[in-house]
TrEMBL record:
Pfam families: DUF218. The keyword Secreted does not apply. Keywords: Membrane, Transmembrane, Transmembrane helix. GO terms for cellular component: plasma membrane. GO terms for biological process: Gram-negative-bacterium-type cell wall biogenesis; peptidoglycan metabolic process. Residues 79-242 form the DUF218 domain. The chain crosses the membrane at residues 6-25, 37-55. The keyword Transmembrane applies. It comes from the Bacteria. The lineage of its organism: Bacteria, Pseudomonadati, Bacteroidota, Chitinophagia, Chitinophagales. This is Uncharacterized SAM-binding protein YcdF, DUF218 family. InterPro entries: Cell_Envelope_Assoc, DUF218, Rossmann-like_a/b/a_fold.
Length: 252
């Protein structure tokens, strides 16, 4: 039920959805005063959520600082969370915007920092008509030179909570020595850390796939409105709401 409800409510996390709802409300309203107020609200939302300075400031405060591991560090396994690839209607897999999770995990393995790779990810699709994501990622890790015997699959999880619960069961069954290395997007890391700790997994976090980095000043990144941020904010809001929801429901 939690999984289904989260998918249904996801639409409401888009700022563009809020603007659309206000537009429909304004269109249906019969009073000039209400229409004026709704128009102002739409404009304010558009200005706020297309402002690059506000977006960058919030994301920088939410993302954990980058972490580096020396070549002398060694861990029995790295845990890479799914959500970085997709299937088309012919069930052919493709990497998505968060493919840095794959890259960084492969780098850790080839540097000898992690001995094994635990891929956790089934399908987050509500209808669940596509293969588990972990299957595609396993094939790609093998193509990248990761030994098949060093790959561990957890292909049932549908969200971050199940990533942690099912990974815990797999790790316990294999009796691997903790701590492990948790690899996921920097934006997703705060929620992942809370959930994996709640599940009783001993790990160190290794954030990657940074949405915003501390780069040199560029007027485009701080002043000029960017309409694409209306969609990017949805991921930020999803993570914040997800973090709070997991806390309230005892999952984190």
């Amino acid at each position: 039920m939690f999984f289904i409800l989260s998918k249904v409510l996801y639409f409401l996390l888009y700022p563009i959805s809020w603007i659309l709802i206000l537009w429909v409300w304004r269109w249906r309203s019969r009073t000039a005063t209400t229409r004026k107020r709704l128009l102002i609200s739409m404009i304010v939302l558009g200005i706020v959520f297309s402002n690059p300075f506000l977006y960058r400031s919030f994301v920088m405060s939410w993302q954990p600082v980058p972490k580096s591991l020396p070549d002398t560090a060694h861990y029995s396994a790295g845990i890479v969370l799914g959500g970085l690839s997709y299937y088309d209607k012919k069930d052919s897999g493709f990497f998505g915007p968060s493919a840095d999770r794959f890259i960084q995990t492969a780098n850790l393995y080839h540097r000898g920092i992690i001995n094994k790779v635990l891929i956790t990810g089934g399908t987050g699709n509500l209808m669940q008509r596509e293969p588990p994501e972990a299957i595609f990622l396993k094939q790609e890790f093998i193509r990248n030179g990761v030994n098949e015997k060093d790959i561990i699959l957890e292909s049932r999880s549908r969200n971050t909570y199940e990533n942690a619960i099912f990974s815990k069961r797999v790790l316990d069954s294999l009796k691997l020595q903790p701590p492990f290395v948790l690899v996921t997007s920097a934006m997703h890391m705060p929620r992942s850390v809370a959930v994996f700790k709640k599940a009783g997994i001993n790990f160190i976090s290794y954030p990657c796939d940074y949405t915003v980095i501390d780069e040199r000043f560029d007027i485009d990144n701080y002043i000029i409105p960017d309409i694409s941020l209306l969609k990017k904010w949805s991921w930020v809001i999803k993570e914040v709401v997800g973090f709070v929801a997991y806390r309230l429901t005892g999952k984190a």
